[in-house]
Structure formats: C-alpha cells, structure tokens
C-alpha cells in the first residue's frame, strides 16, 4: 500500500518540475499546469508558477510593442533627416565615429565624382555609399586632424564647434571641407569621451 503512494508522492513534484521547465523554455505559456492528483496542496505552487509565466508573457508583449514603436519613431526621424539633407544645396555626408557613411545627399555624390580617379567608369559610386568608409574619399590624417580640432573646441565649451580643411581634386580644383560633430548628449555606446556620436 505504501510503495505506490510513495511513488506518487515523489513523482508529482518531479512532474510539476518538468512542466515548469517546459513552461519556462517556451516563448508563450502553454496550457495550465494540471492539478496534482495525490498532492492537491501543490496546486497553489502550480498556480503561482502559471501566474508568473503569464506575467512574463505580458511583459514580453509590452516590451516588443515598445521596441517596435521606438523603431518606427527612429525610422520616421531618419526619413525626415534624409529628406532635409536631400534638399540642401551643399554636399552633406554623415558618418559614425568609425568613419562609416550613414547618410549622404545627391550633391555629395556629384562632388565626390570629381575626386574619383575613374569618374567616367563608376561615377564616384566606388567612393560614396552607405556603409563605405569616408577615408576612401578623404585621407584619414585630414579627417583625424579636423576631428581633433572639433574635440578641442568641445572641451573649451564652444557653442558650434567645427573644423575645416582644403583639398585639391584630380582636376586641380580646390575643395573646402567643413567638419562638425554629431553630438550624443546621452553618451551612447558609439559616443567618444567628448560626447561625439559621429560627424558631418
């Protein structure tokens, strides 16, 4: 008589543990954990586990919705910025701190065509494109020197810190470049010690 009862006594907590593990490993809560037959006092524990799993699912849905809303907001801002940059009469290129091009306008591509060693072949597209390096357009020492100047101005508290340099194109024209910081006041992971998240 005691052996079967003892087996049930030990098997139901083990079954509850297994069902809890399954509940935790699935992305959504499954069917409610059944009531333990031999040990009904375990039902309170099963109910608490089910409640926690439901709260987890609700939190996941809330977070997913917030992330989707934030992503849509970022995309809207990016689209507005792209539209604004496209309308500018000046050449504009936006880069991250690694020098990767994040955004540019048509005028910038036309301007870079003058810097291309093969303008008729590629039209400057081998130099200018999203994800390409600005250092294929301008030599790194020029950009780094300009960035150092911007950092010094930021350290002094300048309201509109920028730096300039002049280069010569293959056709002999002079091109004046103005570099300004894209500041990240929240100090994101991409920002440097001066709060720069990129440059224009």
Relevant terms:
200 residues, alpha+beta, four-stranded antiparallel beta sheet, two-stranded antiparallel ribbon, 6 strands, 48% helix, elongated
Give your account of this protein's structure.
With 200 residues, the chain is an alpha+beta fold. It is 48% helix and 14% strand. The chain contains five helices and six strands, in the order ααββαααββββ. The strands form two sheets. A four-stranded antiparallel beta sheet has the order 2-1-6-5. A two-stranded antiparallel sheet has the order 3-4. The chain starts with a helix and ends with a strand. The mean pLDDT is 79.
What's the total count of β strands?
Answer: 6
Estimate the mean pLDDT confidence: 79
> Roughly what fraction of the amino acids lie in strands?
5-15%
Low-confidence stretches: none
Total number of helices? 5
Main sheet record: 4 strands, antiparallel
Based on CA atoms alone, the radius of gyration comes out at: 30 Å
Spatial strand sequence of the major β-sheet: 2-1-6-5
The proportion of residues forming helix, as a percent range, comes to 40-55%
